[in-house]
Amino acid sequence: MNLLETVEQDTMPARYKSMTQTEMIARVTEIKAQLGDNLFIPCHHYQKDEVVPFADAIGDSLQLAQIAAKNKKAKHIVFCGVHFMAETADMLTTNEQIVTLPDMRAGCSMADMADIHQLTNAWPKLQTLFGDTILPVTYINSTAAIKSFVGEHGGTTVTSSNATKIVSWALEQKERIFFLPDQHLGRNTAFELGIPLEHMAIWNPIKNELEYDGNLADCKVILWKGYCSVHQHFTVKNIENIRKNHPNMRIIVHPECTHEVVSLADDSGSTKKIVTEISNAAPGTEWAVGTEANLVGRIIQENPDKKIVSLNPFMCPCMTMNRIDLPHLLWTLEAIQNGEQRNQIKVDEQTTTFALKALERMLQLS
Ligand code: 13P
Ligand code: SF4
Protein backbone atom coordinates (compact mmCIF):
# COMPACT_ATOMS: atom_id res chain seq x y z
CA MET A 1 0.00 0.00 0.00
CA ASN A 2 1.43 3.40 -0.90
CA LEU A 3 1.28 6.49 1.31
CA LEU A 4 -1.69 8.03 -0.54
CA GLU A 5 -3.71 4.82 -0.19
CA THR A 6 -2.83 4.64 3.50
CA VAL A 7 -3.99 8.20 4.08
CA GLU A 8 -7.16 7.65 2.03
CA GLN A 9 -7.93 4.51 3.98
CA ASP A 10 -7.58 6.55 7.14
CA THR A 11 -10.00 9.29 6.11
CA MET A 12 -12.51 8.82 8.84
CA PRO A 13 -16.22 8.88 7.93
CA ALA A 14 -17.81 12.16 9.00
CA ARG A 15 -20.22 10.57 11.46
CA TYR A 16 -17.39 9.72 13.89
CA LYS A 17 -16.49 13.39 14.02
CA SER A 18 -20.02 14.39 15.00
CA MET A 19 -20.45 11.78 17.77
CA THR A 20 -20.08 12.87 21.38
CA GLN A 21 -17.53 11.25 23.70
CA THR A 22 -20.39 9.66 25.67
CA GLU A 23 -21.88 8.11 22.52
CA MET A 24 -18.52 6.72 21.46
CA ILE A 25 -17.81 5.25 24.90
CA ALA A 26 -21.24 3.59 24.89
CA ARG A 27 -20.71 2.08 21.42
CA VAL A 28 -17.19 0.79 22.17
CA THR A 29 -18.46 -0.75 25.42
CA GLU A 30 -21.38 -2.37 23.60
CA ILE A 31 -19.23 -3.86 20.81
CA LYS A 32 -16.62 -5.09 23.29
CA ALA A 33 -19.37 -6.90 25.20
CA GLN A 34 -20.77 -8.41 21.98
CA LEU A 35 -17.41 -9.66 20.72
CA GLY A 36 -16.39 -11.04 24.15
CA ASP A 37 -13.34 -13.34 24.03
CA ASN A 38 -13.18 -12.95 20.25
CA LEU A 39 -11.66 -9.52 20.79
CA PHE A 40 -8.47 -8.61 22.64
CA ILE A 41 -7.19 -5.05 23.05
CA PRO A 42 -3.56 -4.75 24.16
CA CYS A 43 -2.53 -1.22 25.00
CA HIS A 44 0.88 0.40 25.49
CA HIS A 45 1.48 2.69 28.49
CA TYR A 46 1.87 5.70 26.15
CA GLN A 47 -1.72 5.51 24.87
CA LYS A 48 -4.19 8.33 25.42
CA ASP A 49 -6.42 8.33 28.50
CA GLU A 50 -9.53 8.03 26.31
CA VAL A 51 -8.35 4.65 24.96
CA VAL A 52 -6.76 3.06 28.06
CA PRO A 53 -10.07 2.18 29.85
CA PHE A 54 -10.85 -0.24 26.99
CA ALA A 55 -7.59 -2.15 27.28
CA ASP A 56 -7.71 -5.85 28.10
CA ALA A 57 -4.02 -5.58 28.98
CA ILE A 58 -1.74 -2.59 29.48
CA GLY A 59 2.02 -2.86 29.60
CA ASP A 60 5.49 -2.15 28.30
CA SER A 61 6.80 -3.59 25.03
CA LEU A 62 8.03 -6.83 26.61
CA GLN A 63 4.79 -7.47 28.45
CA LEU A 64 2.76 -6.79 25.30
CA ALA A 65 4.91 -9.21 23.27
CA GLN A 66 4.55 -11.89 25.97
CA ILE A 67 0.79 -11.33 26.17
CA ALA A 68 0.43 -11.58 22.36
CA ALA A 69 2.42 -14.83 22.34
CA LYS A 70 0.09 -16.33 24.97
CA ASN A 71 -3.28 -15.30 23.57
CA LYS A 72 -4.47 -18.02 21.17
CA LYS A 73 -8.15 -17.37 21.74
CA ALA A 74 -9.08 -13.94 20.37
CA LYS A 75 -9.81 -13.86 16.65
CA HIS A 76 -9.34 -10.07 16.59
CA ILE A 77 -6.45 -8.30 18.25
CA VAL A 78 -6.92 -4.53 18.06
CA PHE A 79 -3.53 -3.12 18.96
CA CYS A 80 -3.52 0.22 20.72
CA GLY A 81 0.12 1.10 20.20
CA VAL A 82 2.36 1.66 17.19
CA HIS A 83 3.04 -0.22 13.96
CA PHE A 84 6.07 -2.27 15.06
CA MET A 85 4.11 -3.51 18.09
CA ALA A 86 1.22 -4.65 15.90
CA GLU A 87 3.68 -6.40 13.54
CA THR A 88 5.25 -8.15 16.52
CA ALA A 89 1.81 -9.24 17.75
CA ASP A 90 0.95 -10.56 14.29
CA MET A 91 4.11 -12.64 14.14
CA LEU A 92 3.62 -14.05 17.64
CA THR A 93 -0.03 -15.02 17.12
CA THR A 94 -1.55 -17.73 14.93
CA ASN A 95 -2.43 -17.34 11.24
CA GLU A 96 -6.12 -17.41 12.12
CA GLN A 97 -5.82 -14.37 14.41
CA ILE A 98 -6.18 -10.94 12.83
CA VAL A 99 -4.17 -8.00 14.17
CA THR A 100 -5.51 -4.53 13.45
CA LEU A 101 -3.96 -1.11 14.03
CA PRO A 102 -6.76 1.46 14.48
CA ASP A 103 -4.80 4.15 12.59
CA MET A 104 -2.15 3.19 10.04
CA ARG A 105 -0.35 6.48 10.67
CA ALA A 106 0.62 5.27 14.16
CA GLY A 107 4.25 4.53 13.28
CA CYS A 108 7.43 5.06 15.29
CA SER A 109 9.97 7.59 14.07
CA MET A 110 12.79 5.64 15.70
CA ALA A 111 11.83 2.36 13.99
CA ASP A 112 11.68 4.27 10.69
CA MET A 113 15.33 5.33 11.16
CA ALA A 114 16.51 1.81 10.31
CA ASP A 115 15.53 0.75 6.83
CA ILE A 116 16.24 -2.82 5.71
CA HIS A 117 18.10 -1.61 2.60
CA GLN A 118 20.39 0.48 4.80
CA LEU A 119 21.05 -2.60 6.92
CA THR A 120 21.81 -4.86 3.96
CA ASN A 121 24.25 -2.19 2.73
CA ALA A 122 25.86 -1.84 6.15
CA TRP A 123 26.37 -5.52 6.90
CA PRO A 124 28.96 -6.41 4.19
CA LYS A 125 30.93 -3.25 5.04
CA LEU A 126 31.02 -4.22 8.70
CA GLN A 127 32.04 -7.78 7.79
CA THR A 128 34.92 -6.35 5.80
CA LEU A 129 36.01 -4.23 8.76
CA PHE A 130 35.49 -6.78 11.54
CA GLY A 131 35.12 -10.20 9.90
CA ASP A 132 32.61 -12.69 11.31
CA THR A 133 32.78 -11.27 14.85
CA ILE A 134 29.49 -9.34 15.06
CA LEU A 135 26.12 -10.36 16.48
CA PRO A 136 23.23 -8.10 15.38
CA VAL A 137 20.80 -7.12 18.14
CA THR A 138 17.71 -5.04 17.51
CA TYR A 139 15.50 -3.08 19.86
CA ILE A 140 11.93 -4.31 19.46
CA ASN A 141 11.22 -0.78 18.15
CA SER A 142 12.16 -1.83 14.61
CA THR A 143 10.42 -3.10 11.50
CA ALA A 144 9.69 -6.79 10.99
CA ALA A 145 12.22 -6.77 8.13
CA ILE A 146 15.01 -5.61 10.48
CA LYS A 147 14.03 -8.24 13.06
CA SER A 148 14.07 -10.84 10.30
CA PHE A 149 17.61 -9.91 9.20
CA VAL A 150 18.77 -10.04 12.82
CA GLY A 151 17.10 -13.42 13.40
CA GLU A 152 18.62 -14.86 10.22
CA HIS A 153 22.08 -13.79 11.40
CA GLY A 154 21.79 -15.45 14.82
CA GLY A 155 20.81 -12.30 16.73
CA THR A 156 17.93 -11.32 18.94
CA THR A 157 15.50 -8.56 19.78
CA VAL A 158 15.60 -6.67 23.10
CA THR A 159 13.24 -4.36 24.92
CA SER A 160 14.10 -1.67 27.43
CA SER A 161 13.17 -4.01 30.29
CA ASN A 162 15.42 -6.92 29.32
CA ALA A 163 18.23 -5.09 27.49
CA THR A 164 20.91 -5.65 30.15
CA LYS A 165 20.29 -9.38 30.32
CA ILE A 166 20.04 -9.87 26.56
CA VAL A 167 23.00 -7.65 25.59
CA SER A 168 25.09 -9.45 28.20
CA TRP A 169 24.10 -12.77 26.55
CA ALA A 170 24.84 -11.34 23.08
CA LEU A 171 28.33 -10.28 24.11
CA GLU A 172 29.05 -13.87 25.15
CA GLN A 173 28.10 -15.14 21.67
CA LYS A 174 30.38 -12.93 19.57
CA GLU A 175 33.24 -10.50 20.10
CA ARG A 176 31.07 -7.46 19.38
CA ILE A 177 27.44 -6.48 18.82
CA PHE A 178 25.71 -4.30 16.26
CA PHE A 179 22.83 -2.59 18.12
CA LEU A 180 19.89 -1.15 16.12
CA PRO A 181 18.20 1.30 15.86
CA ASP A 182 18.41 3.24 19.17
CA GLN A 183 21.95 4.42 19.87
CA HIS A 184 20.93 5.63 23.33
CA LEU A 185 19.46 2.37 24.64
CA GLY A 186 22.45 0.55 23.14
CA ARG A 187 24.98 2.94 24.70
CA ASN A 188 23.25 3.07 28.10
CA THR A 189 22.98 -0.71 28.28
CA ALA A 190 26.55 -1.44 27.17
CA PHE A 191 27.89 1.20 29.59
CA GLU A 192 25.94 -0.38 32.45
CA LEU A 193 27.60 -3.68 31.53
CA GLY A 194 31.03 -2.07 31.96
CA ILE A 195 31.93 -1.25 28.35
CA PRO A 196 33.65 2.16 28.20
CA LEU A 197 32.29 4.76 25.76
CA GLU A 198 35.62 4.69 23.85
CA HIS A 199 34.86 1.09 22.88
CA MET A 200 31.59 2.04 21.18
CA ALA A 201 31.37 3.11 17.54
CA ILE A 202 28.50 4.69 15.62
CA TRP A 203 27.14 3.34 12.35
CA ASN A 204 25.89 6.20 10.19
CA PRO A 205 23.20 4.69 7.92
CA ILE A 206 22.87 7.82 5.77
CA LYS A 207 26.57 7.94 4.87
CA ASN A 208 26.86 4.13 5.11
CA GLU A 209 30.02 4.45 7.17
CA LEU A 210 31.48 3.77 10.59
CA GLU A 211 32.20 6.74 12.88
CA TYR A 212 34.99 5.68 15.23
CA ASP A 213 38.24 7.30 16.33
CA GLY A 214 39.67 4.32 18.22
CA ASN A 215 41.45 1.14 17.30
CA LEU A 216 39.01 -1.21 15.49
CA ALA A 217 40.13 -4.15 17.63
CA ASP A 218 38.84 -2.31 20.75
CA CYS A 219 35.37 -1.72 19.35
CA LYS A 220 32.88 -3.88 21.27
CA VAL A 221 29.62 -2.19 20.33
CA ILE A 222 28.47 -0.63 17.05
CA LEU A 223 25.50 1.67 17.58
CA TRP A 224 23.08 2.45 14.76
CA LYS A 225 22.65 6.23 14.64
CA GLY A 226 18.94 6.28 15.54
CA TYR A 227 17.08 7.88 18.42
CA CYS A 228 13.62 8.54 19.84
CA SER A 229 12.36 11.97 18.90
CA VAL A 230 10.31 12.09 22.12
CA HIS A 231 13.02 11.11 24.63
CA GLN A 232 15.69 13.32 23.07
CA HIS A 233 13.74 16.27 24.52
CA PHE A 234 14.99 15.48 28.03
CA THR A 235 18.21 17.35 28.63
CA VAL A 236 20.97 17.86 31.18
CA LYS A 237 19.54 21.36 31.72
CA ASN A 238 16.20 19.79 32.77
CA ILE A 239 18.04 17.66 35.34
CA GLU A 240 19.95 20.70 36.66
CA ASN A 241 16.67 22.62 37.06
CA ILE A 242 15.10 19.81 39.09
CA ARG A 243 18.21 19.44 41.30
CA LYS A 244 18.19 23.19 41.96
CA ASN A 245 14.45 23.75 42.49
CA HIS A 246 13.39 20.39 43.99
CA PRO A 247 16.41 18.93 45.82
CA ASN A 248 14.33 16.09 47.32
CA MET A 249 13.00 14.86 44.00
CA ARG A 250 14.12 11.51 42.62
CA ILE A 251 14.66 11.59 38.88
CA ILE A 252 13.69 8.49 36.90
CA VAL A 253 14.06 8.35 33.11
CA HIS A 254 13.55 5.97 30.22
CA PRO A 255 16.80 4.51 28.76
CA GLU A 256 15.91 5.99 25.34
CA CYS A 257 17.18 9.26 26.86
CA THR A 258 20.76 10.28 26.11
CA HIS A 259 23.66 8.80 28.09
CA GLU A 260 24.30 12.18 29.77
CA VAL A 261 20.69 12.35 31.02
CA VAL A 262 20.59 8.70 32.15
CA SER A 263 23.93 9.09 33.98
CA LEU A 264 22.71 12.14 35.91
CA ALA A 265 19.29 10.65 36.77
CA ASP A 266 18.75 8.61 39.95
CA ASP A 267 17.33 5.65 38.07
CA SER A 268 16.27 4.51 34.62
CA GLY A 269 14.10 1.79 33.19
CA SER A 270 11.26 0.69 30.96
CA THR A 271 7.77 2.15 31.25
CA LYS A 272 6.82 -0.80 33.47
CA LYS A 273 9.72 -0.10 35.82
CA ILE A 274 8.85 3.61 36.00
CA VAL A 275 5.17 2.88 36.77
CA THR A 276 5.99 0.21 39.38
CA GLU A 277 8.78 2.11 41.11
CA ILE A 278 6.67 5.22 41.62
CA SER A 279 3.52 3.36 42.66
CA ASN A 280 5.55 1.36 45.25
CA ALA A 281 7.26 4.48 46.64
CA ALA A 282 6.33 5.93 50.03
CA PRO A 283 3.57 8.58 50.21
CA GLY A 284 4.97 12.08 50.16
CA THR A 285 7.93 11.17 47.94
CA GLU A 286 8.75 13.47 45.02
CA TRP A 287 9.48 12.38 41.45
CA ALA A 288 10.56 13.94 38.17
CA VAL A 289 9.84 11.57 35.30
CA GLY A 290 11.62 11.53 31.95
CA THR A 291 9.28 9.72 29.60
CA GLU A 292 6.32 10.26 27.28
CA ALA A 293 3.72 12.82 28.43
CA ASN A 294 0.53 10.67 28.35
CA LEU A 295 2.17 8.21 30.73
CA VAL A 296 3.53 10.92 33.03
CA GLY A 297 0.01 12.43 33.21
CA ARG A 298 -1.46 9.04 34.14
CA ILE A 299 1.20 8.38 36.80
CA ILE A 300 0.35 11.78 38.33
CA GLN A 301 -3.38 10.90 38.42
CA GLU A 302 -2.77 7.43 39.88
CA ASN A 303 -0.44 8.66 42.66
CA PRO A 304 -2.22 11.58 44.35
CA ASP A 305 -0.18 10.94 47.53
CA LYS A 306 3.10 11.92 45.78
CA LYS A 307 4.44 15.00 44.10
CA ILE A 308 5.21 14.10 40.48
CA VAL A 309 6.28 16.31 37.58
CA SER A 310 7.56 15.76 34.08
CA LEU A 311 11.35 16.19 33.90
CA ASN A 312 10.70 18.54 30.99
CA PRO A 313 7.70 20.81 31.73
CA PHE A 314 7.27 21.51 27.99
CA MET A 315 7.09 17.84 27.05
CA CYS A 316 4.70 16.68 24.31
CA PRO A 317 3.14 13.25 23.95
CA CYS A 318 4.43 10.81 21.33
CA MET A 319 2.45 12.08 18.35
CA THR A 320 2.24 8.69 16.64
CA MET A 321 1.05 6.87 19.78
CA ASN A 322 -1.54 9.67 19.98
CA ARG A 323 -2.95 8.74 16.57
CA ILE A 324 -4.95 6.01 18.30
CA ASP A 325 -7.95 7.83 19.70
CA LEU A 326 -11.51 6.93 20.61
CA PRO A 327 -12.99 7.64 17.13
CA HIS A 328 -10.36 5.38 15.46
CA LEU A 329 -10.93 2.65 18.04
CA LEU A 330 -14.68 2.81 17.47
CA TRP A 331 -14.29 2.88 13.68
CA THR A 332 -12.12 -0.26 13.88
CA LEU A 333 -14.51 -2.10 16.20
CA GLU A 334 -17.52 -1.25 14.04
CA ALA A 335 -15.69 -2.59 10.98
CA ILE A 336 -15.01 -5.86 12.82
CA GLN A 337 -18.64 -6.04 13.91
CA ASN A 338 -19.76 -5.55 10.29
CA GLY A 339 -17.39 -8.26 9.06
CA GLU A 340 -15.19 -5.74 7.20
CA GLN A 341 -11.42 -5.82 7.36
CA ARG A 342 -9.56 -2.54 7.66
CA ASN A 343 -6.00 -1.82 8.73
CA GLN A 344 -4.92 -5.43 9.14
CA ILE A 345 -1.22 -5.76 9.97
CA LYS A 346 0.12 -8.85 8.24
CA VAL A 347 3.80 -9.68 8.00
CA ASP A 348 4.70 -12.00 5.10
CA GLU A 349 5.68 -15.59 5.85
CA GLN A 350 9.35 -15.40 4.96
CA THR A 351 9.94 -12.26 7.05
CA THR A 352 8.01 -13.82 9.92
CA THR A 353 10.05 -17.05 9.88
CA PHE A 354 13.35 -15.31 10.66
CA ALA A 355 11.92 -12.46 12.76
CA LEU A 356 10.35 -15.09 15.00
CA LYS A 357 13.80 -16.58 15.61
CA ALA A 358 14.94 -13.22 17.00
CA LEU A 359 11.75 -12.71 19.04
CA GLU A 360 11.67 -16.25 20.42
CA ARG A 361 15.33 -16.06 21.43
CA MET A 362 14.48 -12.92 23.41
CA LEU A 363 11.36 -14.42 24.99
CA GLN A 364 13.31 -17.49 26.09
CA LEU A 365 16.10 -15.37 27.58
CA SER A 366 13.71 -12.93 29.35
P1 13P B 1 8.82 0.31 26.86
O1 13P B 1 7.35 0.34 27.13
O2 13P B 1 9.24 -1.08 26.52
O3 13P B 1 9.60 0.88 27.97
O4 13P B 1 9.11 1.14 25.52
C1 13P B 1 8.94 2.47 25.37
C2 13P B 1 8.70 2.87 23.97
O5 13P B 1 9.26 3.80 23.48
C3 13P B 1 7.74 2.17 23.17
O6 13P B 1 7.72 2.74 21.95
FE1 SF4 C 1 8.79 5.51 18.88
FE2 SF4 C 1 9.75 7.20 20.72
FE3 SF4 C 1 7.12 7.17 20.17
FE4 SF4 C 1 8.27 5.09 21.47
S1 SF4 C 1 8.06 7.19 22.21
S2 SF4 C 1 6.81 4.98 19.78
S3 SF4 C 1 10.30 5.08 20.49
S4 SF4 C 1 8.79 7.74 18.74
From TrEMBL:
The lineage of its organism: Bacteria, Bacillati, Bacillota, Bacilli, Bacillales. Its cofactor is [4Fe-4S] cluster. InterPro entries: NadA, NadA_sf, Quinolinate_synth_A_type3. [4Fe-4S] cluster binds at residues 108, 228, 318. The gene is nadA. NCBIfam families: nadA, PRK09375.2-1, PRK09375.2-4. It comes from the Bacteria. Belongs to the quinolinate synthase family. Type 3 subfamily. Keywords: 4Fe-4S, Cytoplasm, Iron, Iron-sulfur, Metal-binding, Pyridine nucleotide biosynthesis, Transferase. Catalyzes the condensation of iminoaspartate with dihydroxyacetone phosphate to form quinolinate. This is Quinolinate synthase. Pfam families: NadA (PF02445). Pathway: Cofactor biosynthesis; NAD(+) biosynthesis; quinolinate from iminoaspartate: step 1/1. Iminosuccinate binds at residues 44, 61, 139-141, 160, 254-256, 271. The keyword 4Fe-4S applies. It comes from Listeria marthii FSL S4-120. It is found in: Cytoplasm. The keyword rRNA-binding does not apply. Its EC number is 2.5.1.72. Binds 1 [4Fe-4S] cluster per subunit. It catalyses: iminosuccinate + dihydroxyacetone phosphate = quinolinate + phosphate + 2 H2O + H(+). Its main location: cytoplasm.
